[in-house]
Amino acid sequence: ILNDLLCPSLVLxxxxxxxxxxxxxxxxxxxxxxxxxxxxxxxxxxxxxxTTWAQEMVWMIANNVDLKTGEKSLNDRxxxxxxxxxxxxxxxxxxxxxxxxxxxxxxKNMPSPRFIKTHLPFSLLPDQLKDGSKSPKIIxxxxxxxxxxxxxxxxxxxxxxxxxxxxxxxxxxxxxKGVTYGCxxxxxxxxxxxxxxxxxxxxxxxxxKANLPVVIKRVAKFxxxxxxxxxxxxxxxxxxxxxxxxxxxxxxxxxxxxLRKSNLMVKDGAFIRSGVVxxxxxxxxxxxxxxxxxxxxxxxxxxxxxxxxx
Length: 310
Ligand code: A3P
What we know:
Elements: E1 10-13, E2 18-21, H1 25-32, E3 41-45, H2 51-62, H3 74-77, H4 103-109, E4 115-118, H5 127-130, E5 137-142, H6 145-158, H7 166-175, H8 184-192, E6 200-204, H9 205-210, H10 212-222, H11 229-238, H12 241-245, H13 253-261, H14 280-283, H15 286-300
Parallel strand pairs: 3-4, 3-5, 5-6
Antiparallel strand pairs: 1-2
The chain binds adenosine-3'-5'-diphosphate (A3P).
């Protein structure tokens, strides 16, 4: 099991038998019954696909590029619905005053319009999203799985739980086993296959890297917001890798500081790490890249889903 040290056991849940931390079991029922609102804005994604980047973009677009209010932590502006169920802060030798609030409650009690992040696969979403009785706007972010896998490996390393080398991690990643949120393809297709039923916009990490202003305009249109050219320019700068890396509201440094303080961080590192397309080429062996390419080909064959796989 290659998981966060703070939640070392995984269970298989939902129709897709998705790997989730055992601690999620206490949360599953609450999430199933979570009350969705039509004016919510949700971001759904598989981990390490550029979620944080997209969250900051979406929040800024919806809030007229309000950089001042955006100084508040992204976790508060755009809570991660199931975050509290993924690890147990009580195991971190922190003072109770340092525990984060229950993220489910934070999301639930936010004034509308609420902004909610989730990594949950479609099968584990709240019933009101699954049955279509509520239809908030959903933005789904995806990324080349080879880069997402390498990014996930480094993420697990920082959070202290990865007991494997990258090559073994990649094997399990492709098998959808031993990693929280299971198989990336089941995740993507769980949403993609419902694109005519959900009010959903698909965006890709690689598109954001290639031409961020174009993606900003597409998302603004989806959110029914009008931004001036000047606002788009300011936002593009705000969302640059360097700017986000140095922005404490979005770079999760305060969470990482807690880990450092409790000696749970095995390998020092940053959440906003390298931000490069195709970085996997420097880290994965040629054999693993070949295996990845075959796996990708097999999974997208016969579907209409397109992603840059270079
Ligand atoms: P790398 O580890 O490849 O650098 P998530 O938010 O889903 O966990 O995704 C994290 C990934 O998004 C990390 O990828 C991180 O560096 C990258 N990222 C975050 N902000 C970014 C930005 N402004 N520009 C480019 N990449 C960014």
